[in-house]
Write a structure and sequence with these properties.
The chain is of the alpha/beta class and 232 residues long. Helices cover 41% and strands 20% of the residues. A five-stranded parallel β-sheet has the order 2-1-3-4-5, sandwiched between helices.
Amino acid sequence: MPPSILVIEDDRDIADLVALHLRDEGFAVTVQHDGNSGLQQALSGQYDLLVLDLMLPGRDGLTLCKDIRRQERYLPVLMLTARSSELDRVLGLELGADDYLTKPFSIRELVARVKAILRRQTALAPPATAPATLDCGELHIDVGRRVVTVYGRPVELTAREFDLLLHFARHPGQVFSRAQLLDQVWGYGHEGYEHTVNSHINRLRAKIEQDPARPRYVLTVWGVGYKFAEPA
């Protein structure tokens, strides 16, 4: 059964173009043109990915993304927007978008991003024998609910920060280069390249470490990359 994608975009020409090319790639595509009906559609169907415009009538994309993230089932989100400021981009990612694409964009890049998100979700999906939770000291990861707590305190992570932490926690002691992390967590050569990994590591440490300058969980292996602490 092909992956099912919901596109919420008020510009009908863009929506039709995106849907046409995604269907050409073999995806099942549903289109909505405003935020309210889009949210209802997202909550009523079992979609594998949401392609979401930021500026929508009825309910804007940021609000819709927040609503989606309150649901128990995780739905990956690729956000589209004509606004390209760093603040807008960071805000979208902090509210739960998995990736961000600024208009005008190439259809080839959009398809590549969609495939990368779906590939990453498949890679990060737990095997049948995998534990539902992971613990390392005071760090607790609920894999299914995508909830992280440290010393019993919930930690708000972006979708990418959670994926990065989960990837590390599933491979304690294994050293990953920045290029490997880009390939295995981002799923493709991200436009930020390797410094993107560094910035995500720094933000992740700021959220989960008591002293980010002396991390206990995500450790630097100088000259190579990063690794997750092995159990004591």
